[in-house]
Amino acid sequence: MGKFPIADAFISKIVICKKCKSRNKSSVERCRKCGYKFLRPKRKDIRVKK
After folding, report:
1. Which domain, by its residues, includes 27?
2. For 16-36, how does the pLDDT look when each residue is reduced to its tens digit (9 = 90+)?
3. pTM score, two decimals?
4. DSSP labels, 1-50
5. Domain-located, residue 29
């Protein structure tokens, strides 16, 4: 992952709402903004610009 292990640990605890793209804690069942039920984990890999 990245250079900073503390930041990597924090990023791994984030889930993203598929509807409104807001960040949520990993323990939640629904989005905090819109209440949408389907959440995805945040990407762990580093993408390089082409």
Report:
1. 5-41
2. 999 999 999 999 999 999 999
3. 0.76
4. --S-HHHHHHHTTEEEETTT--EEETT-SS-TTT--S-EEEPP-SPPPP-
5. yes
